[in-house]
Amino acid sequence: MRKTVIALLITLACSPLVHALDQINISFTRPQNAPYFVGQPEFNIDAEEFNTVILKIKSNKSGAARLFWATNFDPQMNQPKSVWFFIDKSNDFKEYAFNLRSQNGYWAGYVGQLLVYPENGPERLEVGPTQAMVGNLGTNISSGWREFWGPRGRLVIGSTINTMASVNLFGRPITVYLYWLIVLSGLGYGGYLTNKWLAQKKREPFSLLWPRIGQGFAVTILVCWCLLEASNTFNLWQIVKQDTRFVGKNIEGKRVLANTGDFYNFILFCQKHIPMNAQFDQRIPPIYNDIKSIYYLYPRKLSTTEAEYLVVYDQQPEANILKKYAPWQTFRQGALILKRGKS
Amino acid sequence: MIIPVIAIPLLLGLLVLSALLGDKAGEFSITEKVALSLMLGLGTLTILMFLLGKAGIFLSLTSILAAVVLLSATLALFLGLKRTFCLTVTEFKLLNLKGFSKLDWLLLTLIALKILLILFSALVKPVVDVDAFQQYSIVAKGVFYDGSFTIPYLQQFIGDKPLLPFLTQGWAMVGLGSDNDALIKIFSPLLFTCWLAIFFSSLRRYYPRTPSLFFTFLAGTFPFIVYHATTAYADIPVTVYYGTATIYLFLFMKEFILGNKTKAGPLLLVAASLLGISIWAKKAALVLAGINLVILGIFLLFNRLQLDRPTWKLISGALLIFLLFAGPWLVLGQFITIANVITSLFGSTPNPAGATATAAIGQPGNKAEMILAIFSRKLFLYADWHLLWALVVASLVFFYRRVFSQPLVFLLMIVGLDLLSLFVQFGSGATFVLLLDGTLLDRLAMNSVPAALFFCAEAILPVFFRQ
Q1: What's the complex ipTM?
Q2: Using a CB-CB distance cutoff of 8 angstroms, which residues of chain B are in contact with residue A207?
Q3: Is B124's CB within 8 Å of A243's CB?
Q4: Residue B416 domain-assigned?
């Protein structure tokens, strides 16, 4: 007994040491003018063993961010090897746990570098000392919770118009868990009814029992549907919250907000100077400002052969084009209207 | 200024609906009639604008209103002679919300809240989705600034697409007197609301208020449809027109089998008119309308012994109405659309991207497996449809007696063929690449969703609430 107690005490005393051995400390720095933070671990992380990363982030603003990593299999930072998460506004460092092995199959091999990319910009944001560690029940629950309420399947992105990803939990769509719940509870209810049916001395036809089992399944599906809808209401609320920035603006102000940088102000500048019935050509980098300009500048029509005006926005026109056009109205450096013929 | 933009098609629709239903309007609820009026009005307005444009008449507020007034006057004269109108004062007096339980109120509030959020999200911001402004809204600007959709410059944006999304947005701009591309999206949330109103009224004919409201609440939950209701794409119009047309076609079959031929008649006429207008919304509706017509044919074949002279008259009338609505597009619009749809179904159009994608997959067997895998993943594991397809499967397994007997089996056939048509289209046509890049499948599958949910309601509710 005494030996057991001593062994237990020794184990407990050593546990912080064991814990410390089971984690790798990583510090993050922001390269000059870079919109991201890079973390350099002390040595390569064995993804098999160190399945969890705990980020510490202090941020003056909330918003979405991505955690990328590079491995010995694929040293590039790219979207498949990333997880998407929400950063909360906080005055102190807040912990963000990610069980990356469960969330993303590409957490494999040896991880040499981590990168945090805040989508709302890196300003007023700090990434503190971070650990890669062997996850435990607490970090797994925290990771699952964050993944479930994360941006995947909740934030509107370009492809939302074509498809909507499901919210994930431990790397699987939430519907997978609901299907298990439906099948198991349905089978349980079916088993209970069948048992009762078998116990009957004078049994009713099975064809009457079967729809009653179906009722159980249908009710479970509908309850799960309502749970999904409750989760989806949060997404709709996010959309509405995002859209409130348009409230109180006139249509031009709304379009300025709906576009990036000074693009729509440049469009307004073009609308002011180019006559309504004129034709224009454009040198605007894709994608999508080149398409938007055609829409916004209508009834001015795009022509690649006989346009009187050339609209240039952050793209250098070819030399042979510059022979035909001369600068006419300047919005700013790199954003101007050229007119056919020499000025 | 947004009120007249809605009120004019609504009033026009009231007259069209009155002419369509005659003295059978009492078979429809007041909310259903208002929803149908807006839908029919928008369709009729689109056809009027199309005919004006094709005749070379400048599409101004004056010319459009003149055409609307002319048609309305003709319809009013006809209705005056027949002494009929689809709405009566008594109906408004009978409107009351007494007898609503707390659960009913909760469901009603949730539905209303969803509609309000969609309206807000649609109208507060300008058009931001790529296809919306590079295709539909730019042509709407063409209608507003140049008074035409036929000028050569706009044809590159229209292609062989049907004109309802272009012209309804164009009407909104003309009616508003500005190119306000936030407000031109008004018809997407309104069509969504119409769909919910019709869905509720259709169920309410046979089931108690609470389950009807509950399934209507479910109808308003599909995240993908909700999102599309805030945009200016063509997918909401085609889903709503085709979905409601299918529901009315099913209701016709149900009443016909129950022996209520008087009730069945107006349902078929409404189904035919909505199906005709759906062809104006999106190319995909050509295939879908074909499926509905084939299933109607099979239904009539199965029930040929009950086909008497008045029923034949009704069916001929319905076909005539379908052609009246769809005809101008099919004849003056594009035969080429039909050709394109057929070639996309059978894959005879050379498409380098499609060929590359097909080549990459290798054996035809692999291709079929891949299509099946993508299909099942999209239907069951994505957020688009919540648990709809699981409910469809549960309905098939547990309520097979009801599901595989008349009339529900015909609705099942429509839903099945709708999905199968996607399978065929993606499997053998040039659109295979669009399946791989994930841009089209969900939007095409959306068209079958209203009918699929109604199918579930019809399969499940009688088990809980004996009819």
Answers
A1: 0.89
A2: 401
A3: yes
A4: no
Distance from CA of B101 to the nearest CA of A (A): 19
Do A29 and A131 sit in the same domain of this protein?
A: yes
Residue (of B83, B2, B74, B82) closest to B44 by Cα position: B74
**Residue A257: inside a domain:** yes
Q: Give the domain-ending residue among A217, A243, A269.
A: A243
A26, A85: one domain: yes
**Is residue B201 domain-resident?**
yes
The answer to whether residues A217 and A313 belong to one domain is: no
Same-domain pairing of A25 and A143:
yes
What is the reported pLDDT for B66? 97
Q: What is the pLDDT of residue B351?
A: 52
Domain count, chain A: 3
Closest CB to A221: pick one of B120, B221, B390.
B390
Chain A interface includes B290 (CB < 8 A): no
A residues 143-172 near B, CB within 8 Å? 153, 156, 158-167
- Number of A:B CB contacts under 8 A? 151
Q: Which of A223, A236, A284 to mutate to test the interface with B (most CBs of B within 10 A)?
A: A236
Q: What is the 3-state secondary structure (H, E, C) of chain A?
A: CHHHHHHHHHHHHHHHHHHHHCEEEEEEECCCCCCCEEEEECCCEECCCCCEEEEEEEECCCEEEEEEEEECCCCCCCHHHEEEEEECCEEEEEEEEEEHHHHCCCCCCEEEEEEEEECCCCCCEEECCEEEECCCHHHHHHHHHHHHCCCCCCCCCHHHHCCCCCCEECCEEHHHHHHHHHHHHHHHHHHHHHHHHHHCCCCCCHHHHHHHHHHHHHHHHHHHHHHHHHHHHHHHHHHHHHHHHHCCCCHHHHHHHHCCCCHHHHHHHHHHHCCCCCEEEEECCCCCHHHHHHHHHCCCEECCCCCCEEEEECCCCCHHHHHHEEEEEEEECCEEEEEECCC
Select the residue of A163, A224, A240 nearest B121 (Cβ to Cβ).
A240
Does B300 reside within a domain? no
CA distance B392 to chain A (A): 10
- For residue B193, tell me if it sits in a domain: yes
Total of domains in chain B: 1
Question: What residues make up the domain containing A73?
Answer: 21-150
Model pTM?
Answer: 0.90
Residues 211-250 of B with CB under 8 A from A: 214, 218, 221, 223-224, 226-228, 230-231, 233
Show the domain range for B205: 1-94+107-233
Among the listed ranges A17-21, A159-163, A259-263, B276-280, which one has the minimum average pLDDT value? Answer: A17-21
Task: Give yes or no: residues A129 and A181 share one domain.
Answer: no
Q: Is residue A295 part of a domain?
A: yes
Tokens of B463: 């088990």
Are A295 and A332 within one domain?
yes
pLDDT digits (tens, 9 = 90+) for A332-341: 999 999 999 8
Residues A100 and A134 in one domain: yes
HSE-up of residue B399 (Cα within 13 Å, Cβ side): 25
